[in-house]
Structure formats: structure tokens, C-alpha cells
Amino acid sequence: MTTPRTALITGASAGIGATFARHLAARGYQLLLVARRTDRLQELAAELASQHDGRRYEVFAADLTDPAAPKAIMDYADAQGLDIDVLINNAGLSGKTAFADTPWDTLAGEIQLMVTAQTELAHLVIPGMKERRWGRIVNLSSVAAFAPPAASLLYTGIKSYVLNISQALDMELKPHGIHVTALCPGFTRTEFHDVMGTRDKANRLPRILWQQPEAVVAEGWNAVQNGKPVCVPGLVNKISAVAMKPLPVRLGYLAGRTLNPFKNS
Ligand SMILES: NC(=O)c1ccc[n+]([C@@H]2O[C@H](COP(=O)([O-])OP(=O)(O)OC[C@H]3O[C@@H](n4cnc5c(N)ncnc54)[C@H](OP(=O)(O)O)[C@@H]3O)[C@@H](O)[C@H]2O)c1
């Protein structure tokens, strides 16, 4: 019997990450689930173990704003004898307060979580994937990566970085059997806006803009299977991404200033 492939999923305690866990478990993957809320991860691991016999669902508590976290996760995977075949770089959040009013530690944490830790985890798993000549990396970007700059938030810039680096890595690694996909959802029904503190404003947005995490993950994983470097799930998001991308700089700036529903003062 061949050993099942293993996926490492960050931010698996909620939303898109937990949905990826269920999606991949149903497809025979073993999982290493990472987030800060261990109780949530353990509940999910128990749920999956009750549904799928003979698979390993490991849990590792990590705060990815801690620079030591990516190495600690990989040390744990090594100690457990888990080769990481799939990396779902998903953990993330958006700040809400204006840049100048936000303590530097908070901003540095966002960069560490969604830029440095994400990039370092990819760097740590790639050598093993190269050796085995097979690997899949999904980096959670956002349709915001195509949008005009959002006033005062790091989020748009961070997700643009993720979109850019994912394509560069895909180009470099495809010859080694490793596909990298930037998954760029739009508004998705998860805990994201509760954490951001924008639930009331988010609830006022038209329903047509929203997707369920199951739809995002199904389309995203399909794109991964097909070796696509970028996936914008859902028709409305696809249209938005195409419409926003070629905006001239001045128009993009104006749109960023006027259209952002979560703009802070
Ligand atoms: N929902 C949307 O509308 C939307 C749209 C576009 C892109 N995205 C992206 O999709 C990804 C997943 O978001 P979501 O919508 O599923 O949000 P969510 O429901 O709030 O889930 C976020 C996940 O990230 C984890 N996380 C946050 N900070 C962490 C930290 N310091 N260390 C470790 N884990 C951390 C959380 O776990 P713990 O709190 O337990 O640590 C949780 O599991 C994010 O990268 C987000 O930017 C979301």
C-alpha cells in the first residue's frame, strides 16, 4: 500500500482553511492542521478521523506572527515522519485601523503572518517536494490583489505580493513537478469580517458579491489539479478582477479612495 499524501494547512481552525481540510480529507489526504486555537483544530481532527479510517490528522498549535513558527512546524512534521506534499498557505486576517494609528507591532505581525511566514513555509517544504518530484502549494491571495490600493491598509499590498510571488514560484518550480497556485477569493462567508470588526458593513454588501467557502475551495482545488497559477473563484470575482486590473493609475487611486467599503478614517 502506498503512503497517502500529506497536506499542511495553516489557518485550519476556521473558514477557508477548515474547508480545505474537509475537502482534502475527503480526497484521501493526511493532514497537519495549524492555527492558534488548538481546541478547534482538535475538534476538526476528531471529526475527520470519525469519517475517514486509517488516515493521520495531526494538530500543531502555532502563532504565525512568531518568526520561529515556520521552522517549529516543519520540525514537528519531521519528528512525526510526515513529508509535506501539499502546502495550503491560508492563515490570514486584515487590520482595520488606519496605518498611522496602528502600533508597529500589529503591522509587523500582519507582514510576518501573511508575507514572511507564508514565504518561509514555502521555502521549507520545497526541497522535499523537489526530491520527490511532486508538490502543490496554494497561497491565499485575494481579489483585493487586483483592486485599487485600499486607503491605509496593508492588506491590498500584502495580497498583491502573494499573487506576484506565487506566479514567480510556479514558473521556477513547474519543471520539478511542483505547481503553485495563488487563490484569490472575493467576499467569502467565514469569520474574516468578525475578526476584522467589519461584520455590520460586510452584511450590507449585496448578496451577489458573496461566496461560500466550499465553492471557493472546490474551484481553487480544481485549479490546482489543472496546474493553474492563478485562480479567481466565482464569476463576479472574475469580472471584478478583469475590470480592475487595467485601471490607469490615477483612476485606480480615485477608486481606492472612494469605493473601499471598509475604509478607515
Ligand atoms: N473571507 C474573505 O472574504 C476572504 C477574501 C479573500 C481572501 N481571504 C483570505 O483567506 C484566508 C483565510 O481567511 P478566512 O476568510 O477563512 O478567515 P477566518 O475564518 O477568520 O480564518 C482565518 C484563519 O487564519 C488563522 N490565523 C489568523 N491569525 C493567525 C496567526 N497569527 N497564527 C496562526 N493562524 C492564524 C485563524 O486561526 P486562529 O485564530 O485559530 O489562529 C483562522 O484559522 C486569509 O488569508 C484571507 O486573507 C479571505
TrEMBL record:
GO terms for molecular function: serine 3-dehydrogenase activity. GO terms for cellular component: membrane. Pfam families: adh_short. Its EC number is 1.1.1.276. Keywords: Oxidoreductase. SUPFAM superfamilies: NAD(P)-binding Rossmann-fold domains (SSF51735). Residues 5-171 form the Ketoreductase domain. InterPro entries: KR_dom (IPR057326), NAD(P)-bd_dom_sf (IPR036291), SDR_fam (IPR002347). Belongs to the short-chain dehydrogenases/reductases (SDR) family. This is Serine 3-dehydrogenase. The lineage of its organism: Bacteria, Bacillati, Actinomycetota, Actinomycetes, Streptosporangiales.
